[in-house]
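Structure in, sequence out. Go:
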């Protein structure tokens, strides 16, 4: 009897161990995908999962959507804890620090293997995610800066043509400036304002990214001019103090003549300003064609337990029907050239107001700036921008600000 009881007990323990192993195995067959502030994109995400399960029916997909202000801290906490999400939607230069520290999967071998997929991507946008010769991300949706024109204010000021140079743009801005109205405004985060410098022939850094190149007499003169225009209200001060809501809100109020921002700004300020439509707002390339990309990508954490499976999900989300769902669901273009042709037809039929803005996204792709692959991108921004901001707001001379910025930036560049 005791022998039988022992056998039963042993069997129960074996069964329990087997069940625990099975549960652990089942829990392990899961990938986690973090998206960037698109909680409304649920139907499209579900389509991604459905397509993914045709390939990996035994895998579960967990989705976490986070605000951009919260994602970096949360992600680093997960990495330290040893539980990084498999796939992360990221924008700006955040990924550079992660990649330089070995935190992201090198996708180059996957891109070389899946050539049909890689060949669909717009190279100028895909190249934004290369660091030291390795591909760390692929474009989820693509945007770059352009110039929005308030045609009502232009007409009131007697302006009947689009600006064709920096000087002409500022002259038009002066004409549109008046009581409670400014002629020009720019977004300033993630180097979005840098085209103003580049269109004046100013480079931020030398070719091998080892030394600052922006502290020139031309840069001093430009900053002095921008500061003077800001003091006189021609350039709205919010250009240097706001981020997203404030400048777009000012344009939506109808009090700004020109706004330098990226395409997603259009639907934001259109939703706030009843006056905004295709007849009252034009979308054109900045004079000279210069623009800063502000695209979103998908990256894979180096700590992912299932990188090959995660790559399959990434391909689904960024090409074919998955990319089409992304474009339609967020009113953006994607990194997939073939899909973009379909999306433009969709927008022409369903959201014609965004078409001019989106068309500019695919033009002048040889004139992208503000997308340097600095491993310490965040630190360089924090060193440079406060000095420029102080000069623009009249708190420092242009010469002092640029001298201080040069010293700080060079110190960071040399500390690699």
């Amino acid at each position: 009897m005791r022998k039988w009881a022992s056998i039963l007990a042993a069997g129960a323990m074996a069964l329990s161990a087997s069940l625990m192993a099975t549960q652990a195995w089942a829990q392990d067959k899961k990938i986690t995908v973090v998206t960037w502030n698109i909680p409304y994109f649920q139907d499209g995400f579900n389509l991604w999962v459905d397509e993914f399960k045709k390939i990996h029916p035994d895998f579960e997909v967990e989705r976490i959507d986070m605000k951009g202000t919260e994602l970096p801290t949360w992600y680093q906490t997960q990495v330290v804890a040893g539980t990084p999400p498999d796939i992360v939607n990221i924008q700006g230069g955040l990924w550079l620090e992660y990649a330089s520290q070995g935190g992201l999967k090198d996708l180059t071998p996957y891109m070389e293997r899946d050539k049909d997929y890689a060949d669909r991507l717009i190279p100028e946008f895909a190249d934004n995610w290369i660091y030291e010769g390795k591909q760390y991300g692929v474009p989820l949706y693509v945007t770059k800066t352009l110039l929005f024109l308030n045609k009502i204010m232009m007409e009131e000021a007697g302006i009947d043509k689009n600006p064709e140079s920096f000087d002409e743009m500022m002259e038009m801005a002066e004409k549109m400036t008046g009581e409670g109205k400014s002629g020009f405004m720019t977004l300033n985060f993630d180097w979005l304002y840098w085209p103003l410098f580049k269109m004046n022939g100013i480079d931020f850094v030398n070719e091998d990214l080892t030394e600052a190149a922006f502290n020139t007499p031309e840069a001093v003169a430009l900053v002095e001019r921008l500061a003077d225009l800001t003091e006189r209200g021609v350039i709205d001060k919010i250009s240097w103090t706001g981020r997203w809501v404030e400048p777009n809100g000012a344009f939506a109020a109808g009090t700004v003549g020109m706004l330098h921002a990226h395409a997603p700004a259009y639907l934001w300020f259109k939703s706030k300003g009843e006056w905004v439509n295709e007849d009252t707002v034009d979308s054109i390339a900045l004079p000279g064609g210069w623009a800063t990309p502000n695209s979103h990508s998908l990256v894979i954490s180096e700590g992912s337990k299932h990188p090959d499976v995660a790559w399959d999900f990434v391909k689904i989300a960024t090409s074919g029907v998955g990319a089409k769902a992304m474009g339609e669901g967020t009113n953006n273009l994607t990194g997939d050239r073939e899909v973009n042709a379909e999306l433009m037809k969709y927008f022409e039929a369903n959201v014609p107001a965004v078409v001019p803005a989106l068309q500019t996204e695919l033009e002048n792709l040889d004139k992208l700036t503000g997308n340097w692959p600095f491993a310490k991108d965040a630190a360089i921004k924090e060193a440079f921008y406060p000095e420029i901001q102080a000069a623009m707001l009249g708190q420092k001379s242009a010469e002092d600000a640029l001298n201080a910025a040069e010293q700080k930036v060079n110190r960071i560049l040399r500390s690699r």
